[in-house]
Amino acid sequence: MTATPSITVAALYQFTPFEDPAAIRGPLLALCEEVGTRGTLLLAREGINGTIAGSENAIAQVLTHIRALPGCTDLDVKFSYADVMPFNRMKVRLKREIVTMGEPDIDPRLSVGHYVDVQDWNALIAEPDTLVIDTRNDYETAIGTFRGAVDPATARFRDFPEWFRAHREELLVGKKKVAMFCTGGIRCEKSTSFLRKEGIEEVYHLKGGILKYLEEVPQEESLWDGECFVFDERVSVGHGLEQGDYTLCRACRRPLTEEQRASADYVEGISCPLCVDERSEEQRARYAERQKQAELARRRGERHVGADSASRK
């Protein structure tokens, strides 16, 4: 019999006005540390977003605290499970936006697309007059997406508005509806709000995101190909939210296949085939030192908190 995973992972977000996010940060971080959760939560004037992991009881305590914050009673939460802790530490950060789009007039609380339940998604995206757009970044779309979806090939979510404006006319030829999707739903809150502001009325998005779809739709009925990138040590998940086959390059934070890890350009913690030509010798030297410290910590049976500090940029 397979043992039940002991770690609960909660991905959450809520758009709601926080007058003073800094005042919320201290008590929230203190509780997370007290009950032993790890992960990252982002706070901004527009709300809260993030993913945390811990025991079922610890997660329940943190969610109770968040739901007591102004406007968070109906907090959007998606649960999954892991055999080992998928995060190295607990962070609660103050940001300008809980998901960065860079469009100051966009407010999902005022205008957003039509939510589509996972059970109705296949029928919508199969309609010939529906334009399907993957709103995620290029390193995410590279390992999986819905059949027939348009990939913007953007490096950052804030590049999405410029991409859409540049390609709008060609994208909408013969299309009456636009259906968009992302990992957990939060980026689509903003992307559908953005399209509404651009004058497009028939805008739809997958409620609960890819994670909800993979959790509830049987693989034999699925229109999803590949795996879904997640922002923790699991790296990717597949149908049933089972952990996938990808690992992470610690230099560029991109997901890697077994074949890519077998490349001569792959040096653990320092480079991979995707980033070997993007980094300077100075950067690689810094990564090498970080990797050395991570290996020393591993031998001591400790977690190296700098292991997740590499950037894609």
From TrEMBL:
The keyword Transit peptide does not apply. CDD domains: RHOD_YceA. Residues 126-222 form the Rhodanese domain. It is an enzyme of class 1 (oxidoreductase). Its EC number is 1.14.-.-. The keyword Ion transport does not apply. Keywords: Oxidoreductase, tRNA processing. Pfam families: Rhodanese, UPF0176_N. Belongs to the TrhO family. Catalyzes oxygen-dependent 5-hydroxyuridine (ho5U) modification at position 34 in tRNAs. This is tRNA uridine(34) hydroxylase.
